[in-house]
Amino acid sequence: MNIRTAPLAVIALSVAALVSMPVAQAQDTAASTPKQVKKAQRKEARAKKNAELKQLEQNGYNPAGEQTNYPQNLQNAQSKINAQKAGKPAPASTP
Questions:
Q1: What's the CA gap between 25 and 19, in Å, rounded?
Q2: How many Å apart are CA 36 and CA 24, to the nearest integer?
Q3: What's the domain range around 72?
Q4: Contact present, 56 and 76 (Cβ < 8 Å)
Q5: Does 74 reside within a domain?
Q6: Is residue 94 part of a domain?
Q7: CA distance 43 to 21
Q8: Dihedral (Cα; 74, 75, 77, 78), 10-degree rounding
Q9: Would you say residue 21 lies in a domain?
Q10: pLDDT in tens, the chain (95 residues)
Q11: Angle at the Cα of 75 (from 47 to 67), degrees rounded to 5?
Q12: Position 17 in a domain
């Protein structure tokens, strides 16, 4: 019978990592496989990008619209978002 054992350093690092993270996160991660963790990370990243795109669209950017003024349209929408985050009035956009 061939039984493989993990080196002590690997076990110690694994235990240290689990002890240092919050309890709720430790339970989620311990029950998840690496594939499930990656899937959750991709889902979170996609949701973040979709929220950013929605915010740009709410501030005047239309990715499916006329692209002759593409960089300027995107920059105008981003400057409006930045102004809102800073609590300043939005700058006037140029057509």
A1: 11
A2: 16
A3: 34-89
A4: no
A5: yes
A6: no
A7: 22
A8: 120
A9: no
A10: 445 544 444 454 454 555 555 555 545 555 689 999 999 999 999 999 999 999 999 999 998 888 888 889 999 999 999 999 998 765 665 55
A11: 90
A12: no
